[in-house]
UniProtKB/TrEMBL annotation:
PANTHER family (alphabetical): HTH-TYPE TRANSCRIPTIONAL REPRESSOR CYTR (PTHR30146:SF151), LACI-RELATED TRANSCRIPTIONAL REPRESSOR (PTHR30146)
Domain HTH lacI-type: start-end pairs: 6-60
Pfam families reported in the protein's UniProt record: LacI (PF00356), Peripla_BP_3 (PF13377)
CDD domains cross-referenced by the UniProt entry: HTH_LacI, PBP1_LacI_sugar_binding-like
InterPro entries: HTH_LacI (IPR000843), LacI/GalR-like_sensor (IPR046335), Lambda_DNA-bd_dom_sf (IPR010982), Peripla_BP_I (IPR028082)
Keywords, in A-Z order: DNA-binding, Repressor, Transcription, Transcription regulation
Gene Ontology molecular-function annotations: DNA-binding transcription factor activity; transcription cis-regulatory region binding
Name of protein: Transcriptional regulator, LacI family
Keyword Transcription: yes
Region Disordered, residue ranges: 337-356
Lineage summary: Bacteria, Pseudomonadati, Pseudomonadota, Gammaproteobacteria, Lysobacterales
Superkingdom of source: Bacteria
Ranges annotated as spanning the membrane: none
């Protein structure tokens, strides 16, 4: 026999209070005495009562849920980002509805439209936001914060990494160690982070007479880094150093070198970008640009929840102020893989700047 679902009336009867008191207690209203609140929560937990989300949404116009739309869920970057978003949401007693679209424009448009009525606000990472009209046409009229997303016009609050400056800093570091032939393993062409890191690498190489840069395709995963590493070793002129546009590709490249008996850093120096947790535990440990990915997600969700709770920007794009574009500057972390003296970054968290 199927067990009958517990209702709010069951909780009220067991606790000896009204249905309205149960509703106020479970929704965090201030006008409930603390002993009553504790009693209601204890009874609800004991009875395994779960509020009906759709009904609560209709009555309070709140789903207590945020939507997160990302291009992918694979890899340590996205797992760290989701970890930061999830921790921030839980701290504010919010749930998270997650969707990915694997870089497909129409799938992302559909994912954004599907969030309407299901969430109170959106965190979005999109490679298509620089296409005029894309967000305006597909975003529901909800508070929205963009993460690592280039906008055609600054209309939504955004949190991003200064990928260009990070790539310049890493390339300059490799050049300062005397490396003059540097290979770059790029990320996917449609990815904003990848384009900015490639732009920084090219500018740093161009600014150093005598430096030679070569470029190899990658997809921000270990397999493409491994393929690029094998192509690099198969070339006529072996580089002094390899700079991979993210740590996952750097680790794949490191494995390709190890398979071929090429020593890092004695034969070729190697560096990555992101400082994922695994970067410090491989051998040799990986020189990289530190980005606090979880912190990026946490700060973005804090900004979104502030919008939701104040009712700001609830009807679509607004004229975002300069302070609404928060740029996190990565820090160089020198480890064994680049061949220079090892030292940690100057701090445990990236600096934060504001760009106009």
């Amino acid at each position: 026999m199927q067990r009958q679902a517990i209702t709010i009336r069951d909780v009220a009867r067991e606790a000896g209070v009204s249905v309205a008191t149960v509703s106020r207690a479970l929704n965090g209203h201030a006008n409930v005495a603390e002993p009553v609140r504790r009693l209601v929560h204890e009874v609800a937990q004991r009875l395994r009562y779960s509020p009906h989300g759709a009904a609560r949404s209709l009555s309070s116009r709140s789903t207590q849920t945020i939507g997160v739309v990302l291009p992918d869920l694979h890899g340590e970057f996205f797992s760290e980002l989701i970890r930061g978003i999830g921790a921030g949401a839980r701290a504010r007693r919010r749930h998270m509805l997650l969707s990915s679209y694997h870089g497909d424009r129409e799938q992302q448009a559909a994912a954004l439209r599907a969030m309407r009525g299901r969430v109170d606000g959106l965190l979005v990472m999109s490679p298509f936001a620089d296409q005029p009209g894309f967000l305006e046409e597909n975003l529901p009229p909800l508070p929205t914060v963009l993460v690592n997303t280039q906008q055609a016009e600054v209309a939504w609050p955004a949190f991003e990494i200064d990928n260009h400056a990070g790539a310049v800093a890493m390339t300059n570091h490799l050049l300062s160690l005397g490396h003059r032939r540097i290979a770059f393993i790029a990320g996917p062409a449609h990815n904003y982070d990848a384009r900015e890191r490639l732009r920084g690498f090219r500018e740093a190489i161009a600014a150093h007479p005598g430096a030679q840069g070569s470029e190899y395709e990658g997809e921000f995963d270990e397999a493409s880094g491994h393929r690029a590493g094998r192509r690099i070793l198969a070339g006529d002129a072996r580089p002094d150093a390899v700079f991979a546009a993210n740590d996952m590709m750097a680790l794949g490249c490191l494995y390709a070198f190890a398979q071929a008996g090429v020593r890092v850093p004695q034969d070729i120096a190697l560096a990555g970008f992101d400082d994922i947790p695994l970067a410090r535990f491989v051998h040799p440990s990986l020189t990289t640009m530190r980005v606090s990915i979880a912190q990026l997600g946490g700060r973005a969700v804090e900004r979104l929840l502030d919008q939701i709770e104040t009712g700001a920007d609830a009807n679509g794009p607004a004229s975002a102020s300069d302070a609404d574009r928060q740029v996190m500057v990565p820090e160089l972390v020198v480890r064994a893989s680049c061949g220079g003296p090892e030292h940690p970054a100057s701090g445990t968290e990236p600096r934060e700047n504001t760009k106009a």
